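Internal tracking record. Fields below are filled automatically when a chain is submitted to the structure queue. Please do not edit lines marked as system-generated. If the sequence contains nonstandard residues, flag them in the REMARKS field before resubmitting.
Queue: standard
Priority: normal
Entity type: single polypeptide chain
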Amino acid sequence: MSFLHLSFYSAFALSSLGLAFHRTHLISALLCLESMMLSMYIALSLWPVENQATSFALMPVLMLAFSACEAGTGLAMLVASTRTHGSDHLHNLNLLQC
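SYSTEM-GENERATED OUTPUT FOLLOWS
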């Protein structure tokens, strides 16, 4: 395993650990999700270069489009929850109280 692969795997693992253990604010969860998507995007964009496969060159663009949609939806949820609940703490968001 090269140093490049190790860095992508460790970035993804650290961001998933951050998502699992730092569940206080919605913005920190969104940042962890974005760092996971960024590490996956970089790994997917370097994968066709390493394998000399041009058929997978469109995959990073699709991943980037889905990541942008996810970020927009997350920010809309952040603004909506801050307006309704007054903060972005995740313990305030309970679906049973809606």
